[in-house]
Design brief:
Strand content: 5-15%
Largest sheet: 9 strands, mixed
Number of strands: 12
Radius of gyration: 23 Å
CATH architecture of the largest domain: 3-Layer(aba) Sandwich
Distance between the termini: 66 Å
Order of helices and strands: HHHHHHEEHEHEHEHEHEHEHEHHHEHHEE
CATH topology of the largest domain: Rossmann fold
Helix content: 40-55%
Length: 375
């Protein structure tokens, strides 16, 4: 048995997660040695004991590793470990990095995922929440930041979809095996993510069904893979607050979008802001937070997103939707919602184009969801 196969087996065994894999490796010297150890020796390890020792000692009864590898190969899924170059670099820094990651899609995107941003929120999103998630995801895409989310209904789906519409790349982290994508209505969205240069990933075996335990585990990967996490809408008992708490524990930046003062879906975000999360109205707030801290390394994408220092050229090179919006804005300040209505385009496309114009330093967003020309 080689090292990689031993890691895959430990990942498939019930009751053995990253923490117990670390215990076994430390006690026996390697995962392979642990799987070859006697049941009596395994019982001596605190945290394994008589309950888990038989599972590790007789692992063949609990998983079919050859079948798992065959299914992955036929499904176009790659299994990576923290010894692979493409394993997400920031994920290696968290307390309990996944033993394995099952990946469908771009390995290169995972390798360079340190400059990504997570966007999460309620499954029961309001129109306002969907609009803000779409705007933020489109802004991230224009600025060159991959967007990470959980492929759930509501805010997650809006973030993934807006990223694709804006021409960006996105990573979906799911709380189940890749053959059991949940919710099922997002299977086409998962396929579109992969087809457009993104990735769908999971730490769970291929046929693992989603459960209450798997989603909090999934959340630590969403926050751990990124430089920061944006929470768009969340009640006080929302799973998104678990993601935010894990991001804080992982020393990541947390951003929160404010909402209506008396709305239940705003209370979680407002609580985060009171506790120190960055109040976020546009993706420029994220960019400003990362490039404005002395001594803090910029994520790769953040440096790309910094507006150029040279003066804006007199002859603008605008076309398509950018030119259409530019012409609408020439009359003075304009409301973003009005621009969406006049352009007959998807809100995410309009927000992406406005972000591009802002990065070109020819328009500026104002309070109250208004924009104006700067030249």
């Amino acid at each position: 048995m080689d090292h990689r196969t031993a890691l895959l087996i430990l990942n498939m065994l019930p009751g053995i997660g990253p923490g117990r894999k670390r215990l076994l490796s430390a006690f026996f010297g390697s995962p392979e040695a642990a799987l070859n150890a006697s049941e009596d020796d395994l019982c001596k390890i605190h945290g394994i004991g008589v309950k888990l020792a038989p599972i590790v000692s007789h692992w063949e009864k609990y998983c079919n590793v050859n079948e798992e590898i065959r299914v992955c190969r036929e499904a176009g899924v790659t299994i990576i470990t923290d010894e692979d170059e493409c394993y997400p670099p920031l994920l290696q820094e968290i307390h309990d990095p996944p033993i394995c990651l099952y990946v469908r899609g771009s390995l290169d995107l995972l390798k360079n995922s340190g400059g990504s941003i997570a966007i999460v929120g309620s499954r029961y999103a309001t129109a306002y929440g969907v609009r803000m998630a779409s705007m933020l995801a489109a802004g991230a895409s224009v600025a060159g930041w991959p967007v990470v989310s959980g492929l759930a209904r509501g805010i997650d789906s809006a973030a993934h979809d807006a990223t694709l519409r804006a021409g960006g790349r996105t990573i979906a982290v799911i709380g189940c095996g890749l053959t059991c994508i949940y919710p099922q209505e997002n299977v086409p969205l998962a396929a579109a993510i992969v087809d457009n240069g993104g990735a769908v990933i999971s730490e769970f075996p291929m046929f693992y069904r989603p459960d209450k335990r798997s989603f909090p585990m999934r959340n630590r990967i969403i926050s751990g893979i990124c430089s920061g996490t944006i929470v768009v809408e969340a009640g006080l008992k929302s799973g998104s607050l678990i993601t935010a708490a894990q991001a804080m524990e992982q020393n990541r930046t947390v951003f929160a979008v404010p909402g209506l003062a008396d709305a239940p879906y705003s209370k979680g975000c407002h609580s985060l802001i009171r506790d120190g999360a960055v109040l976020t109205e546009s993706f420029q707030d994220v960019i400003d937070d990362f490039i404005g801290l002395p001594g803090i390394g910029k994520p790769p994408a953040a440096s790309q997103a910094k507006p150029p220092e040279q003066p804006v050229p007199q002859k603008l090179n605008l076309s398509g939707l950018e030119l259409k919006l530019w012409n609408f804005i020439q009359d003075g300040e304009n409301d973003i919602d009005n621009l969406i209505d006049k352009s007959f385009e998807e809100p995410s496309c309009v927000m992406a184009a406005l972000m591009t114009l802002e990065l070109k330093r020819v328009v500026r967003q104002l309070p109250g969801r208004k924009v104006k020309q700067t030249i």
